[in-house]
């Protein structure tokens, strides 16, 4: 509703992301879902962000992925002055005609998965408030790839 505020602080975003992955991954394992973290050892700078809000975004995207497949891959990298998080499921993907609509509030499309259809809209708003982008696309070989790109410096 336009009243979302951010509590921005310099944050070790890799640590926040990894904490979310490992915490949520153990929960998913109980449901027979594999969450594979594709680690890398490159440096990822601290970024100015609201760590609680971004954790909310990561959890929501992971939760969506868990509704659509038994295997999820997640990674974080530093590319072109941006921190880039990728979360991919191996589910059915999103029908091409629904791709432009999935970030709209309350849009659920043909998905029969639980939920209100508001999560991606909120995630998109949070990422946008950080000056970043949230992109959804069908992954090569099936499934959905969500890419979150966040600027590493304050604009």
Distance between the termini: 24 Å
Shape designation: globular
Percent range for β-strand residues: 25-35%
Helical/strand content category: alpha+beta
Radius of gyration computed on alpha carbons = 15 Å
- Helix count, per DSSP? 3
Uncertain parts = none
Question: Major β-sheet, in short?
Answer: 5 strands, mixed
Strand order of the largest sheet: 2-4-5-7-6
State the order of secondary-structure elements, H for helix, E for strand.
Answer: EHEEHEEHEE
Kindly report the average pLDDT value: 87
Amount of helix: 25-40%
Q: How many strand units?
A: 7
Descriptive overview:
It contains 3 helices and 7 strands. With 155 residues, the protein is an alpha+beta fold. A hairpin with a 2-residue loop joins strand 4 (71-79) and strand 5 (82-89). Helix 2 packs antiparallel against helix 3. The longest helix has 18 residues, at 13-30.
Name a few traits of the molecule.
single chain, 155 residues, alpha+beta, 5-stranded mixed sheet, two-stranded antiparallel ribbon, 3 helices, 30% helix, 26% strand, globular
